[in-house]
Amino acid sequence: MPGTPRAIGFIGTGIMGGHMARRLAEAGYRVRAWNRTVERAEALAAHGVALAGSASEAAAGAEAVICMLSSGPVCTAVLGGRDGVIAAMPTGATLVVMSSIPVETARAQAEACARRGLGYLDAPVSGGERGARDGTLAIMAGGDAATVDALAPVFAALGRATHVGPAGSGQLAKLANQLIVASNICAVAEALLLAERGGADPAKVREALLGGFADSTVLRQHGERMVRGDFTPGGPAKYQVKDTSTALRLARSLGLNLPVAVAVDRLFQSLVDHGGGELDHSAAIVELRRANHPAEAGLDA
């Protein structure tokens, strides 16, 4: 069984990645981080995170490299190639891709790592910015069970890890998660809009539902965002539609028809098309308002 790594390269310190790199450094790991926008990583130095000038520099000498980039194509561009992260990693190190990427991309990355004598886990997360900040992320790990066990202390600094199967399985679990989250967001948005237009106080309706069968993390956190009208991105809508679209492509390849997912994907795609891509995915209620009364929505009609 591989040993627990102490030196960690961290690739991508955005909304969630910055908190994750900080938590690892505060847990005593030697963390060297890289981000495409350098300014977003500079504050991490105060927490003991060393900053690298390139992704390959962050990976060189690391026993484990964590990737928290925005999409499959971005991961492929940064990880692959002659000067990429995989080429820079020392033999025996483990690449942990915690980004949400297509299943087939994760499997291809696992094969590329195996050819170089590297370990590989696809371990996407759920919990948003709050989960990353507080170390309460749900981590869905695909890959070798012994490698998951070896990285258990690392994952413990970030949240709760569950081994769900071979490489690619973590991404399957994340797609399932995203369908549930996206559908729940849309249901909460529709319910609060119905309450609002029917003459009730949506804040009080939300409060009344807490603790009942309609209760959920989405109702508690995103329902509150909807009531307050605070759509500062924790999980931008453009990434939500990326994940629902990825899930639907996979479903079609498996001969599955997922009608709820289709409707949810269309709603988020419309939100993005009308200028809401950078808003939090709880802004689904904004798109519902626009679709019902375009002049009142605040997005492009």
Provide an overview of this structure:
By secondary structure, this protein is of the alpha/beta class. The protein folds into two domains: 7-166, 3-Layer(aba) Sandwich (Rossmann fold), CATH 3.40.50; 173-296, N-(1-d-carboxylethyl)-l-norvaline Dehydrogenase, domain 2 (Orthogonal Bundle). It contains 14 helices and nine strands. The protein has helices at 17-26, 55-59, 72-79, 85-88, 103-115, 128-134, 145-150, 152-156, 169-198, 202-209, 217-228, 237-253, 259-276, 284-292; strands spanning 7-11, 30-34, 50-51, 64-67, 94-97, 119-122, 125-126, 137-143, 159-165. Strands 1, 2, 3, 4, 5, 6, 7, 8 and 9 form a nine-stranded mixed β-sheet that branches. It is globular, with a radius of gyration of 20 Å. The termini are far apart.
Features:
nine-stranded mixed sheet; globular; 50% helix; 2 domains; Rossmann fold; alpha/beta; 9 strands; 301 residues; N-(1-d-carboxylethyl)-l-norvaline Dehydrogenase, domain 2; 14 helices
Q: What proportion strand?
A: 5-15%
Ends apart, CA distance between termini: 57 Å
Write down the overall mean pLDDT.
94
What's the CATH H-level superfamily name of the largest domain? NAD(P)-binding Rossmann-like Domain
Instruction: Please give the largest β-sheet.
Output: 9 strands, mixed
Indicate how many domains the architecture comprises: 2
Number of strands: 9
* Helix-strand pattern: EHEEHEHHEHEEHEHHEHHHHHH
* Form type: globular
Cα Rg? 20 Å
